[in-house]
Amino acid sequence: MRGRIPSALIGVLLLAGCESGAEDGGVVFMYHHVDAGTPAATSVTPEVFAEQMSFLEREGFTVLPLIDLLDALAGGREVSERSVAITFDDGYRSVLTEALPLLESRGWPFTVFVNTEAIDEGYGGYLSWSDLRVLGERGGAIGNHSVTHAHLVRRLPGETAGEWRRRVTAEIESAADRLEAEVGDYLIPAFAYPYGEYTAEIKAVVDETGLYGLGQHSGAVGPGSDFLALPRYPVATGLAIDDFALRARSLPLPVRVSGTEQHVLDAADNRPTLALALDADDDIRVTELACYVGGQGRAVLEWRDDGMRALSVRPERALGPGRTKVNCTAPSRASPNVYYWWGYLWMRRLDDGRWYEE
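Request: output the structure for the sequence above.
Response:
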C-alpha cells in the first residue's frame, strides 16, 4: 500500500511554489446506499444516482481515482479541469448491485471505505470480502473506515487520554491489517472518519499512520487543503440535480482556521466563534462571501481587517446538540454559477454534558 505524502512535505511543496493556484482542485462525492428502500438521509435511489452519473458524463467531468487526485494535489501537480472522485462509505451491497454497472460501463474508478467488523461478521446488507475483491478487479479501490465504525471523538466512561489514543490507533491499525490481508491489492492509504467526526487529536493519529483523512463536511479539495481532514460532498436523494451540479463545479475556497481548531463544543458553548484567514485571488468575489450554519441559514460575519483577509463566523442563534456543519462560499468572477466552497464541523454535547444519541 502506498503511503500518503507526509504532511510536513506537503507544506514544503506548497511553500516552494507549485504551479497550482487557488482555482485548481477537484471535488469528492460521498455516497452510502444506492437503494430506494434504505434511509433517505444516507441514500440515493438508483434513478437519482444514474441521473447524477449522466450529468457528469454529459458535462465532460473527469472522474479520477481518489488516490490519484489526492496525491496530485498534495504534491503540487496539476489535475484535469472539472476533476471529481466518487466514494462510498461503509460497504453496502448496493455499491455492487446498483452503482458498479453504471460506473464500470463508463470506465470510471471509485473507492469504497470499509468498517471491517461489518464484513467479518457478515452484517445484513453489507458486501463480503469476495464482493470487495470483485469491486477491486472492476475498477474499485478500498479504503479504511475503522473496525467498528464507532464515534472515535468520544472517550469511553473512565477512559484516560492515553487509553483513548491507544483505542483509536487500534481501530485504524487493526482495520488496516484486515484490509491488507483481504484486499491488499486494492487498498489505498486513506481513512474516512466514521460519521465524518474528527478532532485535532484524531488527525494526529491518522497522520502517524501515514493516511489521508476524509470527512463528511462539504467543499472542494485543493493544494492548500488540510489533507488530514479533506472535504467530501455527502449525496442523498433530496439533493436536486441543480444542487449536485453546483457542488460538482465548485472550487476550493482558500481559507483556514486561525489558531486552534475547536470541533467538540461544551454544552455551554452554543454560539462558538470561528476565526478564519482568507487568501483570496482576484477571481473570488470576496465581498459576496457568505457562511451558512446548518439548520439556521446565514451566519454572522465580521471582517477583522480592511484587506478582507481575516474574518469571524458566528451562528445567529444557539446551536442544538449534535453535529452542525458550516459552509462558506463565494462566487467566481469569471465563471457564472461557479462557487468557491469550504466547510467545517462542530459537535455539541447535550446540555447535561453527555453525548447525543444516534
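The chain has two domains: 7-252, 257-348.
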